[in-house]
Every structure is written in structure tokens, then in C-alpha cells.
Amino acid sequence: MTYLSHSHSIKETLPLALRHELETVGIKGNNKYTENKLRKEQGLNKRIAY
């Protein structure tokens, strides 16, 4: 999905629901608590794809 920004440049964006899922897992974003941080705490491999 693409959109035209205020500066008239074309930018790509993820659907909001997918972006939230990637942030929750810890693949994208910088949340304090993520699935990958919990997995690390438990000695499990982190999820690198969703």
C-alpha cells in the first residue's frame, strides 16, 4: 500500500493491523514488552518473520 505524504513523496506503509502485529512480536518498532523479549527470557529462539 502506498500513499502520498505532505511533502508529495510516495511512501509505503503497512496496513495498521499488520503493523501492530509486527510491533507486538518485536519484529518492528521498539515496544517495552514484545513476544520476542518474552521468548528470549524463556531461552527460546526469537521470531524473525510473521
Please estimate the helix content: 25-40%
Terminal CA distance: 18 Å
Q: List the strand order in the largest sheet.
A: 1-2
SSE order? EEHH
Shape: elongated
Helices and strands: which structural class?
alpha+beta
- The count of DSSP E runs of length 2 or more, i.e. the number of strands, is 2
Beta-strand portion reads 5-15%
Major sheet summary line: 2 strands, antiparallel
Instruction: Report the radius of gyration as a whole number of Å.
Output: 14 Å
Total of DSSP H or I helical runs spanning 4+ residues = 2
* Poorly predicted residue ranges: none
* Overall pLDDT level: 79
Description:
Helices cover 34% and strands 12% of the residues. A hairpin with a 5-residue loop joins β1 (2-4) and β2 (10-12). The protein is α+β, with helices and mostly antiparallel strands. It is built from two helices and two strands, in the order ββαα. Strands 1-2 form a two-stranded antiparallel sheet.
What key phrases describe this protein's structure?
50 residues, alpha+beta, two-stranded antiparallel sheet, 2 strands, 34% helix, elongated
Summarize the structure.
With 50 residues, the protein is an alpha+beta fold. The chain contains two helices and two strands, in the order ββαα.
List the helices and strands and how they pair.
Blueprint: E1 2-4, E2 10-12, H1 16-25, H2 35-41
Antiparallel strand pairs: 1-2
